[in-house]
Task: inverse folding
């Protein structure tokens, strides 16, 4: 019977440990680097899976029939444009116009810079808004100085229903505090940190407020791309001097999913 050729595993292990001791710090740093590298790969795989899960959950929370049309004027300023949303295409079941502005909001000795969202009562339906206190805006508020505050802004101003705020040169009554909505990447403003007032009330803050967003709901997710084309054509016909870009939650989801796949 022949004996095994070469050193045994005990000798190989002993030589490896001796080499580690001889190499000292550099060897330990190399081993540490290998360990960190393996941990990073595992972390990236977990991040990719979590990002994909978050994308799907976020898509469900957005409302899969929501469409956001960005409206931007081309060329020199002209007369104020406000599209008629009462005769929308049949593939669109509801729409609401939004005008945005930035302003200082004061209550007593407290002051915060905030985004002002001018929009009608339909905003609550399209974005599924609710109140922690008070009520939402209605059509009866169009000529009144009534506002609803986002949850985070209300805490910053220590405001509650019935309080009075100064925005620009006017005093407004707080009629409601919104339930926290979180961030919606389809919108250029976080409602938790904003003031919601009637669209007509934006004239108190600026002489010629511009509609910059149109929110609309499609009738179903299967035909939403077609509804977006109809909405874009309808708005472009009414606003010939403007660029109209309609965005869908599915487009945002596709981008988030692509990013998550890069991590996996």
Result:
């Amino acid at each position: 019977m022949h004996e095994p050729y070469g050193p045994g595993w005990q000798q190989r292990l002993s030589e490896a440990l001796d080499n580690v001791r001889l190499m000292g710090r550099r060897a330990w740093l190399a081993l540490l680097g290998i360990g960190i590298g393996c941990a990073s790969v595992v972390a990236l795989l977990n991040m990719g899976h979590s990002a994909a899960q978050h994308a799907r959950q976020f898509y469900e929370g957005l409302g899969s029939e929501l469409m956001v049309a960005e409206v931007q004027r081309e060329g020199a300023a002209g007369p104020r444009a406000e599209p008629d949303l009462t005769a929308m295409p049949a593939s669109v079941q509801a729409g609401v116009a939004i005008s945005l502005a930035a302003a200082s909001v004061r209550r007593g000795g407290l002051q915060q810079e905030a985004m002002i969202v001018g929009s009608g009562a339909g905003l609550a339906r399209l974005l599924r808004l609710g109140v922690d206190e008070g009520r939402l805006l209605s059509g009866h508020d169009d000529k009144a100085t009534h506002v609803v505050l986002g949850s985070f802004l209300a805490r910053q101003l220590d405001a509650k229903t019935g309080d009075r705020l100064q925005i620009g040169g006017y005093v407004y009554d707080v009629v409601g505090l919104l339930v926290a909505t979180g961030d919606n990447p389809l919108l250029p403003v976080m409602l938790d940190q904003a003031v919601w007032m009637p669209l007509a009330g934006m004239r108190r803050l600026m002489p010629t407020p511009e509609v910059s967003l149109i929110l609309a709901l499609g009738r179903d997710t299967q035909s939403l791309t077609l509804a977006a084309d109809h909405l874009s054509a309808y708005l472009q016909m009414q606003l010939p001097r403007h660029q109209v870009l309609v965005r869908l939650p599915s487009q945002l989801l596709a981008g988030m999913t692509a990013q998550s796949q890069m991590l996996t």
